[in-house]
Amino acid sequence: MLKVIIVDDEQFIAQGLQALIDWNAAGYEVAAVLSDGQEALEYIKKLPVDLVITDVMMPKMTGLELLETVRRENLSNAGFVILSGYSEFSYAQKALRYGCIDYLLKPVEKQDLLSILSKYNNISQNSKMEEQYELAYQARCLISLLFGKYDPNGVDYLHKHLDFSDGVRYIEISACHSSDSEDDDDENHFRMVQRDLYQSCVQILGEDRSRCFYDASLDRVGYGIAFVYSGALARNAGCSETQYIQDFYKKLGVSTQHELRFLVGKKVDDITTVSESYDTVCGLKNLCAFRQQKSIYYYEEELSVPQERAVLCKDTLDQLITAIELNEQERIGSEIDHLFAEMQQRGVHNKDINLNLNYLLFRLMHLASNLDNEANQKEMLQFISAQSFREGISRGSRQHLFRFAREYADYLSLLRKNISTDILDSIDKEIQEHYSENLTLQGLGKKYYISSAYLGQIFRKKYGQSFKNYLCSYRINEACHQLLYTNKRIGRIAEDVGYKDVDYFLCKFIELKGCTPSHFRKSKTEKPHSEFPGK
């Protein structure tokens, strides 16, 4: 529903316009009826507006002055329709030069008004689809760079549209209650939270909104927002980098009313090396699962090593690592007790604790890599550490570490057994028969009595992509089939293939197919059998 405001100092005309047609049936909501241009200007500064229908001659500020101010100060992309009498036609002509989409002669005829509303509705829809496509393309270019895939054309396109001077950082933004688990009971709820985060980021960033996009995670279902920051943002805002990130965090928290977590990656010189910053955020995730929760984690702070009097409980940690490697569950518990006792006795605090955890995680990842050097062990380590965290357990506590160590021991045991073929055949059948349902690695792991972390790993090895991406591709291809062979509306198709959030469906469709669903349907209907992409 497009929001329209009516601006006229003659109350009977404004109210007459409001009552002239069924605005809702035309696809509009009359958000406000205002009496002069100044009042309308203040409204536009505070609230979103799609269409402004305004009289030309009004006290305080004319309709033409309102239009000029809005365009000059770039306050809104709203369309303008000018109301004028025959004697004021020259004003209407001048308004057209400032981007006014049309004009209405007084007294306004019902059919003339409906015709203009229909025209603008089409313009607005086309404009939104073009903007959505452009944002999706920029996101695809950025995601490629995050994963180290350099495309000169994509880089040139990004440099033309965004300023990446003064250094670049990858930042992951998530709501705390949904950021630590791959598989949640209600995916649609968390997708709504993610959508809320995205829309608020877009509103705060304004012209720089293409710097943020839906999660770029690979081996897990992510509900966060990716944000590619550059120093140019802080420079343009007249503040320091730290102040800009803190202000962004506060604004986003106020807008969404969610408790947030920012993971701020390493600063790199240029967008072409942003993959280095992305990798450091993956490293931060491994550590954050073991630490007390806070608002903003900076790579430089969290991964720095103490320079003096570093205390590493190496012998005790080595004993714990051996117990995990041998999957000796009782011994794991006793070794963790010894570790915490030693850290307390030796006065290990803060960054020294981080050093001990870093050593443990590094050694465990090395053990897994020796068993399977093709898997992304960083992602697996992060996933298992996050899964072992449960409500009511302090991060980095004895109980949290105990849960993690036991699950990681099971994971190593599964790697040695190399279970795969029969399970994956069953999983593939599950996807074919239940792709529209809330399928998750955790749920499938429980059903087939296998670690969800290991299941995700062997799935990637067989199919060359994560479970999440495979399921998404399957759903989008099913959507393509329905677009070609049914007359269903796009919103219905999205729901049929498992997406209750239509905006998220559109984002994924454009990301995978390079065009909108409506454009796909239009361009493929002439040769559906020969051009339809296979499943």
Automatic annotation (TrEMBL):
Residues 3-121 form the Response regulatory domain. InterPro entries: CheY-like_superfamily, Homeodomain-like_sf, HptR, HTH_AraC, HTH_AraC-typ_CS, Sig_transdc_resp-reg_receiver. Gene3D superfamilies: 3.40.50.2300, Homeodomain-like (1.10.10.60). It comes from the Bacteria. It is found in: Cytoplasm. Signal peptide: none annotated. Its main location: cytoplasm. The modification 4-aspartylphosphate is found at D55. It holds the Pfam family HTH_18. Keywords: Cytoplasm, DNA-binding, Phosphoprotein, Transcription, Transcription regulation, Two-component regulatory system. Residues 425-523 form the HTH araC/xylS-type domain. May play the central regulatory role in sporulation. It may be an element of the effector pathway responsible for the activation of sporulation genes in response to nutritional stress. Spo0A may act in concert with spo0H (a sigma factor) to control the expression of some genes that are critical to the sporulation process. This is Stage 0 sporulation protein A homolog. It comes from Gemmiger gallinarum.
